[in-house]
Design a protein that fits this description.
This protein is an alpha/beta fold and 206 residues long. The protein has helices at 19-22, 29-39, 41-55, 80-88, 127-133, 146-159, 176-186, 197-205, and strands at 10-15, 58-62, 111-112, 138-144, 163-172, 193-195. It has one domain (7-205): Isochorismatase-like (Rossmann fold), CATH 3.40.50.850.
Length: 206
């Protein structure tokens, strides 16, 4: 674990904090709920966000593309998750499910990144540009899903030269096996630090 996160050079990337993922009644909440409940996801997300704001870290909201009529029609190579998004109309623009969870709303000074179409928050968005303009060298990843958007965003961040931290209990997935793969098998291949919320908060307060 890194000894220190310089507030002027560190950003927390909150990935896909939509009602469809995080709220009871959300279209994907039933699939996320068992793991989310087991790890205390909502509590840990709130804790990380509060600690980051108190410490003066940059907060960046990294949202998935909100579904609209016509999305993905005629695409040569949509990925499997895009097929599911189209069928289920998850994160639909203008819907409650496509709004951010009420506990995770952008504040003045936060970065609201352009929506990513697939899994990486960097690919075809302004995330790298925004972070570089704010002098960020370290990114802390939280949100959903651990084995898809979190992993893809983290890998891309490492390739771009960022120091990458995964906060294991501030993410969730559809199964314990997916969480194990994301954090125990794949995480060590790209993340510089894999820690818990308590460890991160302790470091930020130090």
């Amino acid at each position: 674990m890194t000894d220190r996160y310089d507030p002027s050079r560190t950003a927390v990337l909150l990935v896909d904090p939509y009602n469809d993922f995080l709220s009871e009644g959300g279209k994907l909440w039933p699939r996320v709920e068992p793991v989310a409940t087991d790890v205390g996801l909502l509590h840990h997300l709130r804790t990380v966000v509060d600690a980051a704001r108190t410490a003066g870290l940059t907060m960046a909201f990294v949202p998935h593309r909100r579904w609209e009529e016509g999305d993905y029609v005629g695409w040569d190579h949509p990925n499997p998750s895009q097929h599911r998004t189209r069928r289920g109309q998850t994160f639909a623009r203008g819907s409650w499910g496509g709004e951010f969870h009420p506990d995770f709303q952008p504040q003045l000074g936060d970065l609201l990144i352009k929506e990513h179409w697939a899994q990486s928050g960097f690919a075809n968005t302004d995330l790298d540009f925004q972070l570089k303009q704010h002098g960020v060298t370290h990114v802390v990843l939280i949100g959903l899903l651990a084995n898809t958007c979190i992993e893809s965003t983290g890998r891309f961040a490492m390739e771009l030269g960022y120091h990458v931290t995964l906060v294991t209990d501030a993410t969730a997935a559809y199964s314990a096996d997916m969480m194990h793969a994301a954090h125990e098998l794949n995480g060590p291949t790209y993340a510089h630090a894999i820690i818990t919320t308590a460890e991160l908060v302790h470091t930020l307060a130090g």
